[in-house]
Amino acid sequence: MVKKSLSxxxxxxxxxxxxxxxxxxxxxxxxxxxxxxxxxRVAVSTLQVGLWPKGFNFAAYQKILVNSIFxxxxxxxxxxxxxxxxxxIIVITMVAYAMSKPYFYGKKFITYYLVVTMYFSGGLIPTYxxxxxxxxxxxxxxxxxxxxxxxxxxxxxIRSQLEAIPQDILDSGYIDGASEIRILFKIIFPLIMPTxxxxxxxxxxxxxxxxxxxxxxxxxxxxxxxxxxxxxxxxESMLEHTTQKLIDDIIPAKNYQMASIILVxxxxxxxxxxxxxxxxxGILAGSVKG
Length: 290
Description:
Elements: H1 6-38, H2 41-45, H3 59-65, H4 68-99, H5 107-119, H6 124-134, H7 142-145, H8 152-163, H9 167-175, H10 180-191, H11 193-208, H12 212-217, H13 226-235, H14 253-275, H15 277-284
Helix pairs in contact: 1-14, 3-14, 4-8, 4-11, 4-13, 9-10, 11-15, 13-14
């Protein structure tokens, strides 16, 4: 057993303390939000709720779960997250696979072209006019999916890992008569699955938190996402057509707001621990060659 020096012990202690502080900064606000969401009316109205609930009142959760707008927003968000993430992974991987080929014509030009889009965009107004007026995608799910279909950063990450795969593995597929599509999905995908899982999680998180495109392109509440529903509940003082009709004297507005926050965040927070192990491995897999 290697004996640690005094400086190593001090560093480890400070490191543990820093991690504890970070964990508390994350957990304590969530605990406070949950406590407000389940506390009784008097405790919430008189600001008596701290980190622990004062009484138990789950009426806010019941009201939200039977709210038709919340249910529709949940379906929209799940659909956009699943479909959008799947399409993005397929397109990003195909682009990265093509750009990883040394004989790809115009590879250098296309690489520079894609990288420029990471730093410069057409701007908000041209983008809005293009999607809503020219493509006629207003009040459609395509307005939420197509503009975010390709992420250049993840193209570069996956391309770097593809370039690290030995050519002999690909040649074995060519010898067996496999097409490029078959090689991509039957050979490449299993080899880079940790990276795919990590990138998928980041893409899914971005789509789950989507609300700004809804503000721009949606005029009907049936096109809302969970985050836009939450925005209306928390920041617009209980809009009449979204929440006011569902709240009576038993449920304070604060209960409803905090319960909405918990329900919107719960699915992605529940899934995260099962996928986070792929993050470091997946993102770093293509960064070291040898």
